[in-house]
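Re: that chain you flagged

S.,

Sorry for the slow reply, it's been a week of failed gels. I finally had a moment to sit down with the sequence you sent. For the record, here it is as I used it:
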Amino acid sequence: MHYQRWLRNGAPTKGSPPRDGAPLRHLLALIERWELSLTDECVDDWPHARSKDGYPSVPSGIRSGSRRASHIVLERTGRGPRPDGMECRHFCGDARCLNPRHLAWGTPKENCADKAIHGTQPRGERHPSARLTEKAVREIRQRYVRGNRWHRGNSGDLAAEYGVSANCILAAGRRATWRWLD
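Prediction finished late last night. Pasting the structure tokens below so you have them in one place:
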């Protein structure tokens, strides 16, 4: 009973209920509409708050937290509560989509495979911690690989040239990072 109240209104005993409940009411209306006419199109009808990653979110009322709207959609459309260790997969590749036909619970490995297929996995220059460019990595590999061996001797000079550490140069050259790049 408490869980159902929490889903509907926010925490039954702590904190304040999510604002006026408009995001949750809006989401429940969308779910009801989808059940009447299921569509194969992506549904991004979300005028409310989003997480920093761009996912639609619903305030939960628990210490000012929020829940992802896609999780609520999966729970309310018969797929049950989120299993331990599972994530919400978006088969369409759009993190903003709330169409239940495009969502499923899956392992983190399956979710990463989906991201790779859709091109939404941040890798290479798009990765937030990337310090090198694709062009730089190709140059590094051409200049410092002789035969089939990676030569460590000049990695310090190269590191200074590119403004990164010698370990970063070695990892790129040995394909410990940027593995997918030819």
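What I noticed first: The chain has seven helices and six strands.

Talk soon,
D.
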